[in-house]
Specification:
24 helices, eight-stranded mixed β-sheet, alpha/beta, 17 strands, about 575 residues
Length: about 575
């Protein structure tokens, strides 16, 4: 039997199913008497204290095993436990509604879960799982239930579960847990992120895998494609074992590319950088030998707050990033809110089509008080490293010039105040709007660099909302029209006397079909998920740029996305494995 889910952590795994069954906890609806309110609140306070102690232990263990980046997940859990809003709502239900303490915790945490689950932003939506993790910990303390000791697993297994919490995932030993499969989840869930750091293949979003498989039966998964096969006959196990062996050998080979240049066989060098969402992602970027940060998404700093982050808070974050990556350039994108990304504390107007509306640089240029706080923080952090400021969603030259002039005005104000600001700050823009790609040669007169945001460029070029399942077939990165716009951008940048560098920070930058074409077009910098960097380096180092230029010429004559994909696959064959 074969099914497909979301590939959350790359790799091949085959083994025996370990089916995790969730303990069914019956939560009583019984109300308490007035005289029991104090004792129920006391029980709650004790459970919170014990949960905090457990989390502090987990933070220490996770720091040793996975590093500070992942330990911060549990520090965030700890901050939620300390949040008076959570405790107050629970105690309010106990005091005023006479809920028993377990029911009060269940209802309150479920309300928070529903709130997060309804958010449009995928990253924040995945944080809902953290709320359930916290709820489980508190209720287990109240009822005296011990967590599943996944750290005790001492035989090779593939875990199958409804979901794995971050707490459970942190316990997994890659020596014995060959992979895991879940009914729910996505690539940006904390469990998926941890799995990638642990090197454990994972497929999530399988909906009902727990009802389809039996304990101790053979199962296999591909954490890249999302393919899962179960109820395997012996000959099928042998086939999957061979694939698993190839994957293990590939991982070993990829490690040999750490510390090497990214250079084609005919001597053309490229730069591979990482996309990150916070300082928590920097360990992974360095571990995977990123030669810079091609995209630092500042919106998460706003989204993870319950109010606008102050100039000092932003300065601290940006300084840490720049200092940590001091050898390399760090491209920090200014606030990219709007579209599918909302702030709970900023009431933006409702729009019929928010992706084409009041968002990103358009919003910042209109709300200059918010923009100024961020720009001042960036400029003051600039002395700690190599800063490049990038504006998102630029459609017109006037927008770019206004934004750039605003940065220079803020710089002059800071210098007048006696603050230090670097003299080597680059100011560039994202190419996400087809108009910007078409006008690249004009923009190149004013910008210091371009970075192509293919996720939006594709949806705007093909008029297909990438969040809509009904038109998902139109999200075609290799469509000849998209390729022409990318080439037009690169050619426009090189046509100007400055010959400004062009990077790419969309998903396409780490795509094995797209990479050869981008090499042939002359893209300078590829920014991608950190885990894709070594594989991209291996591929680029196996290519000949002159041959890729000929491949691009052929690709641009193709009629469709599928034709381009077939062409690249046929021409490069085994190099793409």
């Amino acid at each position: 039997m074969k099914i497909n889910g979301i590939g959350a952590s790359n790799g091949i795994a085959v083994g025996k199913v370990l089916l995790l069954k969730e303990a069914k906890i019956k939560i009583s609806d019984n109300k308490i008497a007035e005289k029991d309110i104090a004792s129920e609140i006391k029980r709650f306070d004790k459970a919170i204290l014990e949960t905090k102690n457990d989390l502090n232990e987990l933070i220490v263990k996770t720091q040793k095993k996975l590093g500070s980046e992942h330990a911060e997940i549990f520090e965030a859990h700890l901050s939620i436990l300390k949040d008076p809003e959570l405790s107050n709502q629970i105690k309010d239900l106990i005091t005023n509604e006479k809920f028993n303490v377990v029911k009060a915790v269940d209802v309150t945490c479920n309300n928070f879960y529903q709130l997060f689950s309804a958010l449009e932003d995928e990253y924040l939506r995945e944080r809902a799982a953290d709320i359930l993790d916290i709820k489980t910990k508190i209720i287990n303390q109240l009822l005296g239930i011990k967590d599943n000791a996944l750290s005790d697993i001492k035989q090779e297994v593939v875990i199958v579960a409804n979901d794995l919490t971050p707490s459970q995932t942190s316990q997994l030993d890659p020596k014995f847990v060959k992979g895991f499969l879940c009914n729910i989840g996505g690539r940006t869930s904390h469990s998926a992120i941890m799995a990638r750091s642990l090197g454990i293949p994972a497929v999530v979003g399988l909906k009902d895998i727990t009802t389809k498989v039996k304990d101790k039966t053979n199962i296999a998964l591909n954490g890249n494609s999302g393919e899962v096969e179960f109820d395997l006959a012996d000959e099928k196990v042998t086939v999957w074992k061979e694939q698993e062996k190839k994957w293990i050998n590939l991982k070993t080979e990829l490690l040999s590319f750490k510390g090497k240049k990214t250079i084609t066989k005919d001597g053309y060098e490229f730069k591979l950088e990482a996309n990150v969402g916070s300082v928590r992602d920097l360990d992974s970027a360095l571990e995977n030998d990123a030669h810079g940060i091609g995209l630092f998404r500042t919106e998460f700093l706003y989204m993870e707050n319950d109010n606008f982050p102050t100039e000092t808070e932003q300065f601290t974050e940006y300084k840490t990033v720049l200092k940590t990556m001091s050898k390399f350039k760090v491209v920090i994108r200014t606030l990219d809110i709007g579209g599918d990304k909302k702030l709970t504390y900023w009431d933006l107007p409702h729009e019929m089509n928010p992706f084409l509306g009041y968002r990103a640089i358009r919003l910042c240029l209109d709300q200059k008080d918010v923009f100024k706080t961020q720009i001042r923080a960036l400029l003051q952090a600039s002395t700690s490293g190599n800063l490049a400021i990038m504006f998102p969603m630029v459609a017109t030259v006037e927008e770019f010039k206004e934004a750039k002039d605003f940065v220079l005005k803020c710089k002059a104000e800071l210098i007048k105040e006696g603050k230090k600001v670097s003299d080597n700050i680059l100011i560039g823009m994202m190419i996400e709007v087809p108009a910007s790609a078409v006008n690249a040669e004009i923009f190149a007169k004013y910008a210091d660099f371009f970075s192509i945001g293919t996720n939006d460029l594709i949806q705007y070029t093909l008029a297909a909302d990438r969040m809509s399942e009904k038109v998902s077939y139109l999200y075609q990165p290799y469509h000849p029209a998209v390729l022409r716009l990318i080439k037009m951008t690169i050619d426009g940048a090189k046509a100007h006397a400055k010959k400004i560098p062009v990077g790419m920070c969309g998903e396409m930058a780490g795509d094995k079909i797209a990479i050869p074409l981008l090499v042939g077009m002359g893209l300078d910098e590829f920014s991608m998920s950190a885990s894709d960097i070594l594989a991209a380096r291996k591929l680029i180092n196996s290519l000949n740029k002159k041959d890729m230029e000929l491949l691009v010429a052929e690709a641009l004559k193709c009629d469709s996305h599928d034709e381009v994909k077939a062409l690249v696959t046929k021409k490069l064959g085994n190099l793409l494995d």
